[in-house]
Specification:
With about 600 residues, the protein is of the alpha/beta class. Strands 2-3-1-4-5-6 form a 6-stranded mixed beta sheet, with helices on both faces. The protein has a 6-stranded antiparallel barrel with strand order 7-8-13-11-10-14. Strands 15-19-17-16-20-21 form a 6-stranded antiparallel beta barrel.
Length: about 600
């Protein structure tokens, strides 16, 4: 048994051990602890004595299988964490469960790992979960992998058996583009090639398991990658005249300095870093990947939890409502196209459905089939349709902001990675908005300063309804009432837009494009709102697509929708509804009450 030695530095690495049930992962890990002298004093003897008292044969797996339920079932049911060290570094080993029913636990454990050791039983050979775990490691972005062919003692340390298993498994991994760093023949029971070579495998003279672990390269913090910070929250402190709005989150990649211009996706809002905030510590001038941070902006903009902050001059994330993904489904009930789920990526959470299932992948041989549902433990490539656009990256470039989970009934039922962000109906308009935000020349007086001076919060009020409804009467009366109350307000009829700004579309264009009318209306509204005004517009039967376009341009929080009529005839959910038979003044008073409730105007 090797003597205990201390590492030459404090470097730490997380390694996950995976493999089919009963292929000996826990035995290998237990033997590794013993061979490296990493056990607490007397621990090995304590377990040996207990096994003798209970008339059980001693197994190295007992060193980490501490839970009684695990020993009773003889399977690891959770991702146990154990610690050991070599001469080179400290390690945290995550011993993930191998049983197919605990795939979720395996994924949870592996997601925290920087490298992986995959164990295959020499006698049983490559099993379904051997391939499934290989696929999941690829999906999680783990590329430093060592494959152990364990229990070589059960096949008399036959080199031919070893080579056949290597050829079989590598043929599968080739489909994924994975090349393990080493294939190592070992015996966890006898300690062969765990920390030292064994004479029974004289035909193998390459790295031992311990050598292989020490050959893993510690990933450098991804400071040279594009900056990404999922927004966790926005804090505002109002006591003692403190007007700071602090954007908080954890930096997943890149670095950020005071004075850098940042853009938040999917809103496209742009501002500049004013300061970094720290509690009871000196304020830094720069933050980088791995840091939990909070910062203030020079220009106050409305952003919310779930957005991703990036730098204006770097590669942006993708923004879309349609994502091609690879996912593994862990729910007992199948994932079906007709049902709504929640997708969580970073700090964002959005409703989603399956638009199309491309293929179901058999992780045991990487073959694919076509099915109309994704069943328990299926691995699938499919297109998800989201209720609202989300910002993300692709797994091949930035892993952290490409991973997601699927939630159903408040439980995580699946997870995966984004392979491609597909175009949707709003892609071109969003790109135009992002360009506008990057190129926008700010006024010397901010929208928030105007709000304080005008004693109102600027917004767009859309009064809509059927063609026969009294939209214009309501809008005019609301404008008069707000103006008489001292508010800065303007009414703009849709006809004024169509035959004014949009005259080229209405009179001269080959086709009269309703979407372009809405886009231009949204841009006009954006200017009014930036000027601190309340803008009232009327339009006939606004639908959800129109509303999505407008809100993409000026923000959800700046739009109030009033439906005039007893029945809503489109797919929108208005903020307020009035009946044509209601008294006009009463209706306007009710609308003003809504505006006060939403913080647009304030009670005198």
């Amino acid at each position: 048994m090797a003597a205990s030695t201390e590492p030459t530095n404090n470097e730490q690495m997380n390694i996950v051990f995976v493999g089919h049930v009963d292929h000996g992962k826990s035995t290998v890990v237990g033997r590794l602890l013993a061979e490296t002298g990493s056990l607490p004093d007397g621990k090995l003897e304590q377990i040996q004595a207990r096994c003798e008292r209970e008339s059980q044969p001693f197994e190295y797996a007992y060193l980490i299988d501490a839970l009684k339920e695990e020993q009773a079932q003889s399977i690891t049911i959770d991702a146990a964490r154990v610690f050991f060290h070599s001469n080179k570094r400290h390690y945290i080993i995550i011993d993930a469960p191998g049983h197919i029913e605990f795939i979720k636990n395996m994924v949870t454990g592996a997601s925290r790992a920087e490298a992986a050791v995959l164990v295959i039983d020499a006698k049983e050979g490559v099993q379904e979960n051997s391939r499934r775990h290989g696929y999941l490691l690829w999906m999680l972005g783990i590329r430093q992998i060592v494959v152990l062919i364990n229990k070589m003692d059960l096949v008399d340390f036959d080199e031919g058996v070893f080579k056949n298993i290597v050829a079989d498994y590598q043929q599968f991994l080739d489909e994924l583009g994975i090349k393990p760093m080493f294939y190592i023949p070992v015996s966890g029971i006898q300690g062969a090639n765990i920390a030292v070579h064994n004479e029974d495998t004289a035909w193998y003279q390459s790295e031992t398991l311990l050598d292989a672990l020490d050959s893993f390269q510690k990933a450098s913090p991804p400071v040279d990658l594009p900056f990404r910070m999922p927004v966790q929250d926005i804090y505002k402190f109002t006591q003692y005249g403190d007007s700071r709005r602090i954007v908080a989150g954890s930096v997943s990649s890149g670095k950020l300095a005071i004075g850098d211009r940042v853009i938040f996706y999917p809103s496209g809002k742009v501002s500049t870093i004013n300061s970094f905030e720290a509690f009871a510590a000196e304020q830094p001038g720069e933050v980088m990947s791995g840091s939990a941070t909070g910062f203030t902006l020079t220009k106050q903009i409305y952003i919310q939890r779930g957005e991703i902050a990036s730098k204006v001059d770097e590669q942006p994330p993708y923004v879309s409502k349609r994502l091609r993904v690879s996912l593994v489904w862990l729910g007992q009930k199948p994932m079906v196209p007709q049902k709504q789920y929640h997708l969580k990526l970073g700090t964002a959470k959005v409703r989603c459905t399956i638009e199309h299932i491309d293929k179901i992948i058999d992780a045991s041989d990487y073959s694919s089939t076509e099915k109309d549902r994704i069943e328990h433990h299926d691995v699938a490539q499919c297109v998800l349709l989201l209720h609202a656009p989300i910002a993300c990256d692709l797994s091949e470039s930035l892993a952290d902001t490409s991973r997601f989970v699927i939630v159903d009934d408040y439980e995580i039922r699946g997870g995966g990675i984004v392979l491609e962000a597909l175009p949707d109906e709003g892609s071109q308009i969003r790109e135009a908005i992002f360009l506008r935000e990057r190129k926008w020349i700010d006024s010397a007086v901010s929208m928030y300063q105007r709000s304080e001076r005008y004693n109102q919060r600027s917004c767009l009020i859309i009064v809509t309804g059927t063609e026969e409804s009294r939209r214009k009467e309501v809008a005019h009366q609301l404008e008069k009432s707000l103006f008489q109350s001292g508010k800065f307000v303007y009414f703009l009829g849709i006809g004024s837009v169509i035959y004014g700004v949009d005259a080229d579309l209405k009179l001269f264009a080959a086709t009269d494009d309703p979407q372009e009318h809405m886009r231009r209306l949204a841009e006009i509204a954006h200017i009014f709102i930036d000027a601190g005004l309340i803008l009232i517009v009327t339009a006939r039967e606004i639908d959800q697509a129109d509303l999505n376009l407008i809100r993409s341009s000026i923000g959800n929080e700046r739009v109030e929708v009033v439906w005039n009529g007893s029945r809503v005839t489109t797919d929108i959910n208005p903020d307020f509804q009035i009946d044509d038979d209601d008294d006009l003044n009463t209706s306007v008073t009710s609308i003003k009450g809504l505006l006060m409730e939403h913080g647009v105007i304030f009670a005198p």
